[in-house]
């Protein structure tokens, strides 16, 4: 029968981790301290009795357990058990007729050194483990705060006049680099975009917050997507001198009066526009990602978008969601589910598409996932 070593190893590591957690946090109370001290003393007595009778043939160090237990429970104060154990070890050797008394003192000294080293190593290990756990707890608190702040930057719904927007972000880690953004501009425009910062985790989330700050700075200065992307790129390349990262983004401005969508795409997957007749148009990319070249330009395109028509933007984590056979979710499958959800309200349509993505990859997303849907009501 084949043994599943990996799950067994993980369970063992998890058990040892929980045991160390308990040892680090455990301190005997005033009432239980005397009980633990009594148990340690009885352990020394038992070890002394065994050594005095079987010391000449016994190869197991029975004194080690009470010594280590005392150090683990009482920390530095517990080291006082070492002289007691040494005395019991020496006296037990004297009472055992089979032990050579000429080497007994040296043997006892060697045991003292061994117990001291092992106890000291155990105390340092517990101290460092406790420090790591405290640091990990602080980091987890900071990451949780960062996650909540990141979600606060991205409201999941927006309605202004005839424009309705719904968005959702799922990070594979606590925080990530996928984001979307929307805001009104002037009297007749609605600005919205969806972007993806290269990478995952805290570094990607910090860059995402920086990009959103740049967008707030320049997104209120012009209704032109190409202008805003150009300014964002200049700010990002100034900050990103080593060109160690980049950002893809689909940036759009909807003119309510003209019922037209103006957009520019900086290396992002094509947005899909669902027409009333069920046809799907691909709004393809028109330029490089942000942060690659300082003097990049992005072509600005426009399409009509009337009442009842929908636009969906998404990060590459949607297209690359992979099932167990290694098949990506893909653009065609997304277009199919977009058409099938056309009769649903916008909220339900978004939830249905996300559910289909999760169903395809069996709930195991390999990358961050962001979806933003827009509808002209």
Q: What do these coordinates show?
A:
It is elongated, with a radius of gyration of 33 Å. The protein is of the alpha+beta class. The chain folds into 2 domains: 141 residues, no CATH class; 221 residues, 4-Layer Sandwich (Phosphatase 2c, domain 1). A hairpin with a 4-residue loop joins strand 5 and strand 6. The strands form 2 sheets. It has a 6-stranded antiparallel β-sheet. A 5-stranded antiparallel β-sheet has the order 3-4-5-6-9. It contains 10 helices and 11 strands.
Keywords:
5-stranded antiparallel β-sheet; Phosphatase 2c, domain 1; 377 residues; 6-stranded antiparallel β-sheet; 2 domains; alpha+beta
Task: Reconstruct the topology from this structure.
Blueprint: H1 5-25, H2 30-54, H3 64-74, H4 81-95, H5 104-153, E1 157-160, E2 163-170, E3 178-185, E4 189-197, H6 201-218, H7 225-239, E5 247-255, E6 260-266, E7 271-274, E8 280-283, E9 301-304, E10 310-314, H8 316-319, H9 330-340, H10 346-360, E11 369-376
Antiparallel strand pairs: 1-2, 2-11, 3-4, 4-5, 5-6, 6-9, 7-8, 7-10, 10-11
Helix pairs in contact: 1-5, 2-3, 2-4, 3-5, 4-5, 6-7
Summarize this, please?
By secondary structure, the chain is α+β, with helices and mostly antiparallel strands.
């Amino acid at each position: 029968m084949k043994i599943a070593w990996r799950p067994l190893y993980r369970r063992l590591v998890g058990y040892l981790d929980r045991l160390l957690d308990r040892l680090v946090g455990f301190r005997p109370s005033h009432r239980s301290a005397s009980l633990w001290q009594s148990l340690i003393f009885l352990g020394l007595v038992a070890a002394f009795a065994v050594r005095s009778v079987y010391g000449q043939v016994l190869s197991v160090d029975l004194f080690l357990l009470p010594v280590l237990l005392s150090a683990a429970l009482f920390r530095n104060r517990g080291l006082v058990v070492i002289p007691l154990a040494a005395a019991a070890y020496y006296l037990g050797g004297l009472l055992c007729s089979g032990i050579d008394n000429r080497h007994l003192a040296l043997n006892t000294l060697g045991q003292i050194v061994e117990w001291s080293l092992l106890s000291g190593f155990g105390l340092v290990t517990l101290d460092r483990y406790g420090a790591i756990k405290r640091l990990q707890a602080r980091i987890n608190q900071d990451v949780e705060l960062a996650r909540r702040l990141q979600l606060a930057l991205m409201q999941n719904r927006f309605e202004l006049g005839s424009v309705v927007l719904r968005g959702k972000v799922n990070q594979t880690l606590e925080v990530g680099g996928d984001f979307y953004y929307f805001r009104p501009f002037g009297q007749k425009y609605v600005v919205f975009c969806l972007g993806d910062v290269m990478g995952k985790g805290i570094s990607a989330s910090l860059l995402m917050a920086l990009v959103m700050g740049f967008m707030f700075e320049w997104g209120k200065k012009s209704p032109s997507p190409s202008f805003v992307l150009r300014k964002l790129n200049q700010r990002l390349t100034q900050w990103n001198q080593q060109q160690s990262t980049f950002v893809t983004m689909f940036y759009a401005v909807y003119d309510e009066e003209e019922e037209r969508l103006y957009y520019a795409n900086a290396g992002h997957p094509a947005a899909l526009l669902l027409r009333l007749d069920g046809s799907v148009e691909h709004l393809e990319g028109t330029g490089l990602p942000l942060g690659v070249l300082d003097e990049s330009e992005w072509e600005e395109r426009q399409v009509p978008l009337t009442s009842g028509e929908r636009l969906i933007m998404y990060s590459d984590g949607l297209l690359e969601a992979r099932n167990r056979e290694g098949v990506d979710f893909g653009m065609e499958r997304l277009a199919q589910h977009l058409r099938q959800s056309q009769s649903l309200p916008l909220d339900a349509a978004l939830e249905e598409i996300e559910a289909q993505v999760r169903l395809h990859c069996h709930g195991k997303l390999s990358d961050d996932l962001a979806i933003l849907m827009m509808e002209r009501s």
